[in-house]
From TrEMBL:
<dbReference type="GO" id="GO:0032259">
    <property type="term" value="P:methylation"/>
</dbReference>
<dbReference type="InterPro" id="IPR014776">
    <property type="entry name" value="4pyrrole_Mease_sub2"/>
</dbReference>
<dbReference type="GO" id="GO:0030788">
    <property type="term" value="F:precorrin-2 C20-methyltransferase activity"/>
</dbReference>
<dbReference type="GO" id="GO:0009236">
    <property type="term" value="P:cobalamin biosynthetic process"/>
</dbReference>
<comment type="pathway">
    <text>Cofactor biosynthesis; adenosylcobalamin biosynthesis.</text>
</comment>
<keyword id="KW-0808">Transferase</keyword>
<keyword id="KW-0489">Methyltransferase</keyword>
<dbReference type="InterPro" id="IPR035996">
    <property type="entry name" value="4pyrrol_Methylase_sf"/>
</dbReference>
<protein>
    <submittedName>
        <fullName>Precorrin-2 C20-methyltransferase (CobI-cbiL)</fullName>
        <ecNumber>2.1.1.130</ecNumber>
    </submittedName>
</protein>
<keyword id="KW-0169">Cobalamin biosynthesis</keyword>
Length: 80
């Protein structure tokens, strides 16, 4: 995750694919890399199925109460 954090420090946007195992670490890396709480956060789950979910919120709103599962197909964050 050290490399990801370094890339995040120098990026305006980050995209993560299918790696819910590291969801909590990804959120922490983004915050540690300076992505402010008002950064736009979008997550897609079960894309292309009848159960597709697309959620958009701010990075600061992301917590266990706002997301029912930490699985994702794609996660996109844009620095505010």
């Amino acid at each position: 995750m050290t490399t990801v954090k370094e890339i995040a420090r120098n990026s305006e946007s980050m995209i993560f694919l299918k790696d819910g195992r590291y969801f909590d670490q990804v959120i922490q890396v983004l915050k540690d890399a300076g992505f402010p709480d008002n950064s736009i956060f979008a997550i897609g789950q079960d894309l292309g199925t009848d159960h597709e979910i697309i959620r958009k919120m701010t990075l600061g709103e992301v917590n266990d109460d706002t997301l029912t599962t930490k699985y994702f197909s794609i996660l996109v964050v844009k620095r505010a």
